[in-house]
Design brief:
- The protein has a single domain, classed as TIM Barrel (Alpha-Beta Barrel).
- Helices cover 48% and strands 15% of the residues.
- The protein contains eleven helices and ten strands.
- The longest helix has 23 residues.
Length: 284
């Protein structure tokens, strides 16, 4: 099974090019490329040499023995009532898919949106609008299970695709040749669902990508497995039970966020080792 991690924290410190080298040096097979922060926004979205930049990233990955398997599109995908943001973000979504085509990315995560009504209809329309660009780039679009905060209590609450039945329903309305599920394991328990049951409900055909991180069930911690309260024995068993054949991708960069630069590569290698251990639990 392919082991990968996002570029987010590493690239924020060292830049995209150096992030590729650090992740490769730690032993990862592949990279989930982050495109939702401002440290690479100028090169990707406000520069007519973005293709040159993408090819430089691709060459760096090849030289260091890794590849790009997954990516994060700009987030959020849409903001209800914020026309200025949406006008700016819409072309970024298409550009991010195009960049994934250059990098050879298999799945790009484009988060579904809480449209405050008619969520399925409006999200399906959004995804279908992106489909021609995805087909041209040869990239699958992955939906992700989301959460929100209650505006009055500030408690974490269910949102779009938070429960397995709704997630499956969205996917069944889209062409499986071009759309898939990226299951964020940490998000499941936040809204009171069971991770193993969610995995079984989606099954092998719909579930082809992961975001792996641990939580306390109180906050969206995005830390390394075994640092929170999730049951990794049950999770890995469920993935084994369904015959999961996708990649194992960390979205656990909060684990790295307070590590000093001088100790960063050691922590990144520890993250890698944790991933290999979890994969062994699935594959044994």
């Amino acid at each position: 099974m392919i082991l990968s991690t996002q570029t987010h924290e590493t690239a924020e410190r060292f830049g995209d090019i150096e992030a590729v080298k650090h992740i490769a040096q730690a032993g990862f097979d592949a990279i989930d490329y982050t495109m939702f922060e401002d440290y690479n926004e100028q090169e990707l979205f406000y520069n007519d040499k973005y293709e040159e930049y993408a090819y430089k990233l691709l060459q760096t990955a090849k030289e260091n023995g890794v590849f790009f398997n997954q990516a994060h599109a700009p987030f959020p995908s849409y903001r209800v009532g914020d026309d200025e943001y949406n006008k700016k973000t819409y072309p970024k979504l298409h550009r991010s898919i195009e960049i994934c085509g250059i990098l050879g990315v298999k799945n790009i995560i484009i988060h579904p949106v809480d449209f405050k009504g008619d969520n399925k209809k409006k999200n399906i329309a959004m995804y279908r609008d992106l489909l021609p660009t995805a087909k041209k780039a040869g990239v699958k679009i992955a939906l992700e299970n989301m959460w929100t905060r209650n505006p009055r209590t500030r408690n974490i609450s269910p949102n779009v695709c938070s429960v397995s039945s709704e997630f499956a329903d969205f996917l069944e309305a889209l062409d499986p040749a071009w759309f898939t599920a990226c299951l964020d394991l940490g998000h499941i328990g936040l809204i009171g669902e069971d991770e193993a049951q969610f995995i079984h409900a989606l099954g092998r055909e719909k579930l082809t990508a992961l975001h792996v991180h641990d939580t306390t069930f109180v906050e969206d911690s995005h830390t390394l497995p075994f640092c929170g309260k999730m049951d990794w024995s049950a999770i890995t068993k469920a993935l084994k039970d369904i015959g999961y054949k996708g990649d194992f991708t960390f979205e656990a960069d909060n684990f790295l966020s307070r590590i000093p630069n001088g100790f960063f590569d050691t922590a990144l290698k520890y993250m890698h080792d944790c991933g290999r251990y979890l994969i062994s639990m699935i594959e044994e």
